[in-house]
Amino acid sequence: MRTIVLLVLSNVFMTYAWYGHLKIKGDAKPLLLIILTSWLIALPEYCLAVPANRIGHVEHGGSFTAPQLKVMQEGISLLVFLGFSIVVLREAPTWRDLVGMGLIFAGLVVALSNGAK
């Protein structure tokens, strides 16, 4: 469970770092400043994601293989992004977006279907 919580928290930081600047209208800020600010916001993401993967990996006493951790991270990333898109950016996904996300979640189900090790 620690792995999942850490991955959720890391994805909150990463989603904000990658997409938060879209709320800034036009060219109000220089691109370099936006990049540097995003990089600083992303730093805590690494401080959460690295331990999440280490704790969760089978070689370190966890329950998941590296591919399972990656697929799980992608599913969590989509859920966090979906909420961010709707609440912060005020952009609702189209039905095509939702179908695409659903297919990714189907992959997550397949990847984790053999259960935790």
What do you see in this structure?
- This protein has 117 residues and is mainly alpha-helical.
- The protein has one domain (2-112).
- Helices cover 72% and strands 0% of the residues.
- Helix 1 runs antiparallel to helix 2 (31-56) and helix 1 crosses helix 3.
Number of strands: 0
Number of domains: 1
Q: Which percent bin holds the helix content?
A: over 70%
Q: Low-confidence runs (pLDDT<50, min 5 residues)?
A: none
Order of helices and strands: HHHH
Task: Supply the helix-strand structural class.
Answer: mainly alpha
**Cα distance, first to last residue?**
14 Å
- Biggest sheet layout: none
Please report the number of helical segments. Answer: 4
Mean pLDDT: 91
Summarize the structure.
The protein is mostly helical and 117 residues long. The chain has helices at residues 2-19, 31-56, 66-87, 95-112. The longest helix is centred in the middle third of the chain and has 26 residues, at 31-56.
